[in-house]
Amino acid sequence: MKKTTIITWISVVSIIAISVLAFTISNSITAQIPSASSYAPTFKDWSVQFSESMNPETFTNDTVKVYNNDNESVSVDFEWNDDNTILTLKAPKEGYTVDESYQINISDQVETANGKGLSKSFVHSFQTVEELPKIKDQNQLITLLEERIEKRQQQRGNEFTTMEDSEESADTAAGDGASNESSTSETNVQVEGIDEGDSVKTDGDYVYFARDNDIVIASTDENNSNVVSKIQEEKFQTRELFLHDDLLVSIGHTQETIRELKETEQPKETTNADIAIYPPVHSMQTTTYVYDISDKENPERIREFTIEGSLTASRKMDGFLYLVANNHPPVHIMGNPKEDVDLEDMEVRPFVKDTSVSDKGKPVDFEDMYFFPESNDESFMLISSIDLNDMDKEAKVETYLGASNQMYMSQNHIYTAANKYDTSESSNDSSSADTMIARTADTEIIQFKIDGGAITYNASTVVNGSLINQFAMDKRNDTFRVATTKGDMWRDDEPSTNNLYTFDTNLNPLGEVEGLAEGERIYSVRFMENVAYMVTFKQVDPLFVIDLEDAKNPTVLGELKIPGFSNYLHPLDDNHVIGFGQHTDLEEVEGSSEPRVRQRGLKISVFDVSDPANPTEKFSEILGQGGSHSEINYNHKSLFKHPEKNLFGFPAQLYESKIVQKGDATYEEHSFVYEGAFLYEISPESGITLQDTITHQADNKQHPEWESQIQRMVSVDDYLYTLSFDQMKVYNMTDSTITKAIELPELNRQY
User: What are the residue ranges of helices labelled H in 46-198?
Assistant: First the structure.
């Protein structure tokens, strides 16, 4: 009986203690700086967030102080938000002093609106740095990474990043420098004079075709066309090609590490997780191989340039190759307390191998490493340039602590765009990990000057919302323009909106137009001279025509609503734009106020924008039914454009669809119809006319063979060449006949 009584009293006391502790925690008044950094620019405004509304009258020069190295108080102004939960300490008018340490002190004597005191004084120390500071040494780099890892763990519930971010941009009209005088098609690019890498290139005499892990070189000699040679590298996957004089540039991913591996003795007692880090985890690597192709039958590799990181994008201009890549350091080891790792001995800098100077990889020099003080990103962005006119010249590599999702390049600048999440709203919320997943992003745009291969940071800005792809950015004359979608179109409480912003050459804001097409998102954008064309969609396709002649006052001139949407917009002439996308219709759903959007085939539209206030869909063409798809809807480089005629082509797979009823289940069934290249004449006068279709598939196939799916089309004079992984066909455009089919070497897949 006594034993039972004692246990009961212990239980009661425990419950009371837990209740008191819970009450104390729930009633504590806290202050924090979300995503605080130990480094800050000289004009940094610090925002301190409180768990309850505060009484601003208790915040004085006595209760809030910023001290410098000499323990002297620095004068700062206070600024509150509407509900007095966020205090912003404005930087001194002359700014903080570079390379000096400061400390923010908020006394526990400050009070809430209800008269309660701060649970404990708030202190934050920081060191000021120049606007874009260099990473001085290993200690500073580790400090920066540890801070960012800690913030990420707080925001995402201590989830570790365990793999390389291999997401590739959906991006991915001038030329690739064909060397002869024939009428030769070129890669469809965004900016005239700036080439973009693609799986197929041609110089008018030969075609170069990257087939995953090899490159086929074939002559384009009409009926005498044939395979000349093949290039294959071990443990290398080719992603895209460039041509420059007698050089062929191949960019892809390698699996052979460029780091020197040291033999590491495993602990005697190991778990599977322990074994997983022996040898150390390595980043994805982007490798550029350069071949001398002056002898097409015997191409010779003369250069290798490898960087640790996944490729974001590449460009070629004026004989220089530019690469942007993301590198993720092994933060899953650094941020895991179970891993016994000496961080000071751990080389987290990205490695680079350039055979123009050495056959061994080495870490990027700290002299070429920078960080953005306001950023929380824990990955590296590497921007490189290679002088293709001097194979003995070392590549230039600049490294920044911060990632990139998209890239746009003009004649004088490279712009990178990365998603930027505001975590301050949920930092005091126990469900912050869940809200992080649902939170929409803004976009940080960073501008770099380029001059003869030299790359220099110039400016940065943040815009509301996220970008659909590289076509959401554009520079014309002295104005940079960008289009974004802010929010989630499926949220009724905070519906998405679409926006367009303009900036000067240093990314200072000029003008904006916001709030377009509430509840929809951007599907495609095209900037042409002083006009922007924007397609949004949820149930119908509004095409907006936006006047940008006055960069300080962008103005919507007209809007057109039609079924379906365009994924890619291509200029036809000054008054007409071609849209490639999807045809849709709406289907009523029992018990729902929202109809279901059904994809009903591919769609080509010709928009007449001669009257900007009243754009019209002048012509349209629908291909296939539900389930039909084409690469043109996510990769503009798959579009063929004849250099002289209004001939356009693209590969596509067409399906038929029918509604099937089985018991209580109703669903749509798709049946394969056709796969191949579609060649159209598209003109403002006669509209959209199918010229021919070309397939590499065998007859009577229920499903398309993967190896026979057409990847690209190129033309030289009057002949068109279609390429799949297993063959190349020669098509005479004069009499619309296939004159030859060339079997390509068997593709030996390495995985």
Answer: 138-156
Structure tokens at 661: 């009823």
CB-based contacts of 372: which residues, under 8 Å, 6+ apart? 132, 400, 401, 402, 446, 460
pLDDT of residue 341 exceeding 80, the answer is: no
Three-class secondary structure of residue 361 per DSSP: coil
Beta strands in 372-508 (DSSP E): 380-387, 396-401, 406-409, 413-420, 442-451, 454-463, 473-476, 479-486, 497-503
Return the bridge partners of 514, or none: none
Convert the pLDDT of each residue in 659-702 to its tens digit: 888 887 877 888 999 999 999 999 999 999 999 999 999 988 88
- Encoded amino acid at 391, one letter: M
Strands 46-50 and 64-67: unpaired
**Which tokens in the block code for residue 349?**
């800098």
pLDDT > 70: percent of the chain? 81
Q: Which secondary structure element, helix H or strand E, spans residue 578, and what is its range?
A: strand 576-587
* pTM assigned to the model: 0.81
- Alpha carbon distance 386, 289 (integer Å): 12
Q: How many CB atoms lie within 10 A of CB 249?
A: 23
Q: At 272, is the secondary structure helix, strand, or coil?
A: helix
Q: Is 102 helix (H, G, I), strand (E, B) or coil?
A: strand
Closest CA to 474 of 411, 521, 424: 411
Long-range contacts, 450-455 (Cβ 8 Å, 24+): 450/320, 450/322, 450/385, 450/409, 450/412, 450/413, 450/414, 451/412, 452/318, 452/320, 453/320, 453/385, 453/386, 453/387, 453/396, 454/385, 454/396, 455/322, 455/383, 455/385, 455/396, 455/398, 455/414
pLDDT category of residue 422 using cuts at 50, 70 and 90: low
Residue 562 and residue 615: Cα distance in Å, rounded? 11
Report how far Cα 580 is from the mean position of its chain's Cα atoms. 22
Q: What is the mean pLDDT of residues 450-462?
A: 90
Amino acid at 543: L
**What's the average model confidence in pLDDT over 3-30?**
50
Q: What's the pLDDT at 340?
A: 54
Count CB neighbours of 691 within 10 A.
13
CA distance 243 to 177: 7
* Mean pLDDT of the 591-600 span: 69
Residue position matching structure tokens 């084409």? 630
β-pairing, 369-371 vs 396-401, is parallel
Strand ranges across the sheet with 206-210: 200-202, 206-210, 214-219, 227-232
Tokens standing for residue 204: 């008018």
Is 307:372 a contact under the CB 8 Å cutoff?
no
222: Cβ–Cβ under 8 A, 6 or more apart, which residues? 719, 730, 732, 739
**214-219 and 206-210 strand pairing:** antiparallel
β 122-129/77-80 pair status: unpaired
Short-list 469, 478, 631, CA closest to 535: 469
What pLDDT does residue 132 have? 81
Separation between Cα atoms, residue 481 and residue 504, nearest integer Å: 9
* Cβ(463)–Cβ(482) below 8 Å: yes
Q: Partners of 308 in the beta sheet?
A: 285
Q: At residue 291, what is the residue type?
A: Y
Strand partners, 289: 250, 304
Report the pLDDT value the prediction gives residue 588, as an integer from 0 to 100.
Answer: 67
pLDDT(608) > 90: yes
**Cα separation, 134 vs 414, whole angstroms:** 20
Instruction: Please check the confidence at residue 427 and state whether its pLDDT lies above 60.
Output: no
Compute the chain's Rg from CA coordinates.
30
Q: What is the DSSP letter of 663?
A: T
* SS3 annotation, 212-261: CCEEEEEECCHHHCCEEEEEECCCEEEEEEEEECCEEEEEEEECCCCCCC
**Cα 236 → chain centroid:** 23
For residues 361 and 287, what is the distance between their CA atoms, to the nearest angstrom? Answer: 12
Closest by CA position to 50, among listed 42, 41, 59: 59
- Token pair of 384, please? 């490189």
